[in-house]
Each structure stands twice: as structure tokens, then as C-alpha cells.
Amino acid sequence: MSHFTEADLKKIYDANDDDGNGIFDLAETKKAYAQLGEHAKKVDNFEAEFNKHAKDGHITFNEFKHFAVLH
Ligand SMILES: [Ca+2]
């Protein structure tokens, strides 16, 4: 596995924040998650995982870290 840092994750996060409001709705989270490839954390139920972290239907960058494996 190649090195994958918080800075790498932030690049993916920013590139998928389509409306530029700094937070992710479900669609943005799904799209960014799909780009994580081998760095994606396995989740059984993506929407349930999203809803666990989401407040008002959105997650922040810190919460998006739950969907990735940093190393
Ligand atoms: Ca957004």
C-alpha cells in the first residue's frame, strides 16, 4: 500500500466539495469515498455510516476521516 496522509485525504475532500460550502452531503461523500480506492475503510452500510456521523445531513472533514484509512 502506498503512503496516504491526511493531506492526501484533504485534496480528495476539497476536490469533491461540489458546492464549495466546506461540508459534505451524502452525494459528495459517496463520490469522494469512491475515489479513495485502496484507502477506503470498509463499511457494511454506507448510508448508515454516513448518518452515524452526519449532523443536519452533512459531515465535516474530520468526520470524513472515518471513511478512510490513513497511514
Ligand atoms: Ca458541499
UniProtKB/TrEMBL annotation:
GO molecular function, one term: calcium ion binding
Record domain EF-hand: where: 4-39
Top-level taxon of the source organism: Eukaryota
Transmembrane segment boundaries: none
Cited Gene3D superfamilies: EF-hand (1.10.238.10)
Residue ranges the record marks as coiled coil: none
InterPro entries per the UniProt record, alphabetical: EF-hand-dom_pair, EF_hand_dom
Protein name: EF-hand domain-containing protein
